[in-house]
Amino acid sequence: MTSPRRPSRPTLALLAILFAYFTFPMAMTGTSVALPEIGRDLGASGAALQWVVTGYVLAASSVMLVAGSLGDLFGRRRVFAAGVALYAAGTLAAAAGQSILVLDIARTVAGVGAAAVMAGGVAILATLHEGPARARVFAAVGTTAGIGIAIGPTLSGALVGAFGWRASFLLFGVAALLVLALTALIPESRAADRPKVDRPGVLTFIAGLALLMFAVTQGAQSGWGSLAVLGPLGAGVALLVVFVAVERRSGHPVLDLSLIRDRLFSGWLFAAMSISLGSIGVLVFLPTYLQGTGGLSASGAGTLMLLMTVPVFALPSVSGLLVARGVPARRLAVTALLLSAVGNLSLALALAPDAGAARLAVPLLLIGAANGLGLGQIDAQALSTVPAERMGMASGLLSTGRSVAGTLVLAGFGAALMTLVETELGDRGAADLVVTGRGAEVAGEFTGAWQTLLGAIGAALLIAAVLAHRLLRPRTAREAPLPPGPRPAERVPADR
């Protein structure tokens, strides 16, 4: 086994990757603030408008695992840079889009690029740092991403209010071009052994997961009885079954199934996905509620969302410090889930058409605090259980799980709101207008739907906290750590 060689510029690489983790989350959270303006400008509503966000998340979910594994084979910097370039192209195309169809396609392309960036960046940093240094680096990643998440709604709201929704996409596209230039600072690394690509695994996973997520999204938005939903659903499930069979027989799988069978790694993956349940729906849909029923401007809604996003800026560093001082990371993960549960339940009680910052402060701060405690540290702890040669694969699986959870939450949250409002109004067309921010005259019905949904999410998070506490218990003497995977060689610089 070849001894690992340290790249000569880890600090410069860290700065370049941190800039990506600053700007990309900012664009993700900021887009939700622009949705009402996009809908008015392009004459879009309902599923077509929600696909501006959903298409991005679905594409990212489908590609992250494959992007991480390809980084192990062909070079993590190469995959990272390709993702940045694709993201820039899609975001700039979104800024110029003249129809909702073009905008949805452009955002989907940007999501594919974001998948490579998110999976590749984590894998690069994990190979450059070990032990306490890795915990500190991932705390820095969490803090930086938290700043982006915190600033995103406010910045996008200000840009939309002053220059229109296209300005936000233009700004983030230009920022991506700058990140692309900075990738020259990142040393290349990959596994020393380069077997051929697991093409059957790549194709069946991407196609299967994409079809499954598409069917779930469409079914949640338009009903489950049509062939347009049932066909992709069945095909997606069948392809994922084929994927598992292929990976069991492959000598160089794109996903080593022993990762999922490992209780501790799966526990961290479950915690990451569960925290998404408590935050994604509120982050994406609450700005529309505040504008449609509370009469706030895009800028005002974005500013109010700082109550939720500011804790994400501050707490990753705090969690990293606590872990370094001996606080069990398991305890922080369970605490984060409990905070998110209480935050969602209290938001259900506080939400009202005339609710201002004072009334919404505590619930949004609690949800933000949950995100801040988990951001960064969950990835660091999960990757600490994985052999070095599978860092890309493991980081891709973590990102995939988080994104799949985000896609399901987006689809389920939007569908649940639509169904609950439609039940009250008896008119799906009217419910569609309400959910997309154009129904202030029925604010009470919309608020009731929100309260029901938030209560259900809070209860689910309480259950998730109990399960995470069980899954993340320390290994017993009978539970050996994960063995090295099918790629036996350590990482080496690839550009020597």
What do you see in this structure?
This protein is mainly α and 496 residues long. It folds into 2 domains: 401 residues, MFS general substrate transporter like domains (Growth Hormone, Chain: A, Up-down Bundle), CATH 1.20.1250; 56 residues. Helix content is 78%, strand content 1%. The chain is built from 18 helices and 2 strands. Strands 1-2 form a two-stranded antiparallel sheet. The radius of gyration is 22 Å and the shape is globular.
Specify the structural class. mainly alpha
Please identify which CATH superfamily of the largest domain we are dealing with: MFS general substrate transporter like domains
Radius of gyration, taken over Cα atoms and rounded to an integer in Å: 22 Å
Taking pLDDT < 50 over at least 5 consecutive residues as the criterion, the unreliable ranges are 1-8, 486-496
- Return the domain count: 2
Mean pLDDT across every amino acid position: 78
**CATH class division of the largest domain:** Mainly Alpha
Number of helices: 18
Task: Quote the distance from N terminus to C terminus.
Answer: 18 Å
What overall geometry do the principal axes of the alpha carbons give?
globular
Question: What is the succession of H and E elements?
Answer: HHHHHHEHHHHHHHHHHHHE
Q: Do you know the CATH architecture of the largest domain?
A: Up-down Bundle
How many beta-strand runs? 2
Percent in helix: over 70%
